[in-house]
Design goal:
Length: about 150
Amino acid sequence: MTDILNQDDFALSFSEEVDEGLTAKIQSVFPDTTAAELKAFAANVLIGHIPARKLNECVGDTFELCGFYVKDVMLVAGNQKRNGKYTVLFGHCGKEPRAYATTSDKIYEALSKIIAVYGSASDWKQGIPVRIRVNTLESGNKTYSLEVI
């Protein structure tokens, strides 16, 4: 059985995108103070010229969260299908731009809680330092999250 909590095991099926008002559900936020270089990097990641790192392969990484992109998609694992979120987190590690992609619902929830505390990302004056975490449940399943540091 597929571990529903570890959404990074699901394959993205862009041919079966959630189509109910999809364009209204695409979210992309960067503060006006974001450097042009990071915005160009983010655009090239989203276009597909630069690959985003898989978040589940980067547990322990720390970076300054500067913006994000969220898109509703259909997640497919074997014969299981469900609606989910494709989330790309953008930021810096030192001076190097970073992008992390995931379909983890827990990352989307963590991002929502960060916004609840720090306000809309469009209003951030600087990046928010975060660490990628993995939590192992009693069942042995893993969930990914962000820790503000």
